[in-house]
Amino acid sequence: MAALNINAKQYEELILGEKPVLVDFWAPWCTYCRRIDPALNKLADSREDVLIVKINIDEEPELARQEQIEVIPTLVVYKEGFDLGSIVAPESKARIEEFLAEVL
Fold first, then answer.
1. Is 98 left (phi over 0), alpha (psi -120 to 50) or beta?
2. pLDDT over threshold 80, residue 82
3. Is 100 known to be catalytic?
4. Catalytic residue among 3, 6, 21, 33, which?
5. Does the predicted model carry a pTM greater than 0.85?
6. I want to staple 103 with a disulfide (CB 3.0 to 4.6 A). Which of 25, 46, 55, 84 is the partner?
C-alpha cells in the first residue's frame, strides 16, 4: 500500500494512536519531495510496524505552521501524540530506515 495522503483532521486522529506514524510533510512543487516519494511508497509496502502518511503543506498550511515545518520534505514520527523525532530531506530509503530504527 502506498503512503496515504491525509488531511489535518486525519492527522490529529492518527498521531494519537499506539502505532507509530511517519508523516511526510511535502508539496507537489518540491522536486526533492517527488524524488523520495517512491522510497516512501516502498517503505509503506514493506513496513507493517509503522503507518506512513503524507501531508501536502499547500493544502494544510496551518498544520505546517503548527508543526513548525520550515523545510520540505520533513519526515516526523509520532506515537501516542508524541513527536519522536524528525529528519529533513533524507537522502535515500536506507537513510529513512536508519532514522526509523533510531526513533522507534
1. alpha
2. yes
3. no
4. 33
5. yes
6. 84
